[in-house]
Amino acid sequence: MTSASPPAEPPRSVIEIAGVTKVYTMGTNKVFALRGVDLHVHAGEFIAIMGSSGSGKSTLMNILGCLDVPTDGRYVLDGVRVDGLDRNALADLRNQKLGFVFQGFNLLARTSAVENVELPLLYDRQHRWENPRALAAAALGKVGLGERLDHQPSELSGGQQQRVAIARALVTQPTLLLADEPTGNLDSHMTVEVMALFQELNEQGITILIVTHEPDVAKYAKRVVEVRDGRILRDHPVEDRHNAADDLRALGEDDPVVEVEQAPPAQVAQT
Amino acid sequence: MKQRTLLKLAWQSILKNKMRTLLTMLGIVIGVGAVIVMVAVGHGAQSQIEASISSLGTNLIIVSPGSSAQGGVSQGAGTFNRLSIADAEELKRDGTTLAAVSPVITTRLVVIGPAGNWRTSINGVSPDYFTIRDWTVTSGDIFTDVDVKSARKIAVLGATVAKNLFPGVEAVGAQIQIGHVPFTVSAVLAAKGQSATGADQDDVILMPYTTAQNRLSGNVRLGQILVSSFSPNDIPAAQSEITAIMREAHRLGDNADDFTVRNQTEIAKAATSTTSVMSGLLAAIASVSLVVGGIGIMNIMLVSVTERTREIGIRMAIGARGSDVLTQFLVESVVMSILGGIVGLMVGFGGSLILAHFTGWSTAVPASAVLIAVGFSAGVGVFFGYYPARKAAALNPIEALRYE
């Protein structure tokens, strides 16, 4: 790549988008969801994309997640030019380079945790994975659910379900973990719990990008990108960054939380 | 995805909706079952006809008069009868592959016995005839070559004739009149039953062909020459030898054959063609229900795709290609329809046994029915599962994930 880069040895670039626009045509109206977005994300970053609904952050997330393609502009993900790829290539890219965590967890119902987690491995077309079941079990161990491999989503709390989803996102060792409002369906305790897990994973070197509208969640990230009206309004490092593990301990002291097995109303795919 | 994983996936999803799966499968079960029963009825009728054809005789070859052409217009079979007793005698003398040869001279006359009279067909044949048609007597003796030579006036009665002329009385040795000529009954034949066309094979009187030729009046003609080969495998060789001898005897040179040589298989084929048309028709009607079953599968798969839109979105988000989703749904519908096909096969098998038991029809499930059942139901699964699967594969992952 010949783009002008800082003089010092830069960290590996994970996301590089330039002049990305997205236009939806509704009848005769043209709706501009993104009006030219530039964003660079390097390996090891923990970014929060913030914005109110309608700001274009979801569209940006979909494009970054290779679920959608930009109308115009350039997108390079981990050295692969994404704009202009077909459906199949996008699917393969999602499988190999990305891990998704959604607001509604999006686990397959009536399917055990370990089966949910091994799913992305089964869709790998290069057959990179030897023993999917063992890898899935290891990933669940990593998020603290090593004891609940055979539990179905309905038998897990919301926080646990989200951790299963995080394990599923991590199991393919993706270049980038994308989380879309990952704490939207969780109470504050579980929110901090999940954020602590994200911070821990980020410490281990995993690049994380979360989309949220809650400043309380963004304060755990390292960098915040604010989006409004399809443009990036501000892009700044987080001052006064919180440590979720500390907050969790503090929460525990004020108000000892009993493990609640009842999940909040979660969106689980019917199968 | 590996095939085993796909099958496991399909199986899990089938188990998740047991009642629905069972009802959907029921359509295929009924369809395949109906087809199997109809095929069994048709096949049973056919083998019944084949059995009665083989009662005609063993390794039978029939030489009959050919057709003639006058000014380019074919006059049809038998219009120009050049078959002669001499032909039969020549075949008997020169044939090396022919086990037995008998001319058949036919006429119909009234026969008068002590208890009344009876109009029946009279066949003048040689002793070989009994070998060819595998026909035995219940009492008395059949005539010999000596009787043929001396044109003795003896008659062998078919079971029906004996029953009508000599009800409850011993026929052998008695006197009868055939067309005002006195004959002695030398034997009564064992009953053979109905022929393939439903005619009573026992309503007949057999006598030496010389006697029939010399003593009987009326429309006496040589209808055909019956030949049998040594074994079924010899039939083609025997047929070509017959043709060669006959062409030589009739001095045909470059002309077309003036006779027809047919074997039992050809006759059987002609007789069974009607039944196979009938059974084909029955199977076609039955397969309509198979199509209806397929539509049931399509309907349920469409519902299933809509219900599982979110699942499809999740799978796509984590890297499933459209083709992966397509395969998943297609495997599901095929597994469902093959299961239905296998159950339908058993139902059809049981159904045809029950039908045979209550109606007395002969039914037979041919071995090929297993392949037909499984093949057809798999075909139905692919055909009717493709559209819903295609629909699932074409979903947009973003919209699918957002689907409530």
Characterize the structure shown.
- With 271 residues, chain A is α/β, with parallel strands linked by helices.
- The radius of gyration of chain A is 19 Å and the shape is globular.
- Chain A starts with 12 loop residues before the first strand and ends in a 17-residue tail after the last helix.
- The longest helix of chain A is centred in the last third of the chain and has 16 residues.
- Chain A has a 6-stranded mixed sheet with strand order 6-7-8-3-9-10, with helices on both faces.
- Chain A has a domain of 184 residues: P-loop containing nucleotide triphosphate hydrolases (Rossmann fold, 3-Layer(aba) Sandwich), CATH 3.40.50.
- Chain B is of the alpha+beta class and 404 residues long.
- Chain B folds into 2 domains: 181 residues, no CATH class; 175 residues, no CATH class.
- In chain B, a hairpin with a 2-residue loop joins strand 2 and strand 3.
- Chains A and B meet through helix 2 and helix 3 of A and helix 1, helix 10, helix 11 and helix 13 of B.
| Helix share bin of chain B | 55-70%
The total count of strands of chain A amounts to 10
Termini distance of chain B?
Answer: 27 Å
Unreliably modeled segments of chain A: 256-263
- What radius of gyration of chain B results from the CA coordinates? 33 Å
- Taken as a percent bin, the fraction of beta residues of chain A is 25-35%
Shape of chain B: elongated
* Estimated radius of gyration of chain A: 19 Å
* Average pLDDT metric of chain B: 85
The most extensive contact between chains is: A-B, 30 and 26 residues
Average of pLDDT of chain A:
88
Fourth CATH level, the homologous superfamily of the domain at 43-66 and 95-254 in chain A:
P-loop containing nucleotide triphosphate hydrolases
Q: Give the CA-CA distance, first to last residue of chain A.
A: 45 Å
What's the β-strand tally of chain B? 12
Oligomer type? heterodimer
Rough shape of chain A?
globular
Give the CATH topology of the domain at 43-66 and 95-254 in chain A: Rossmann fold
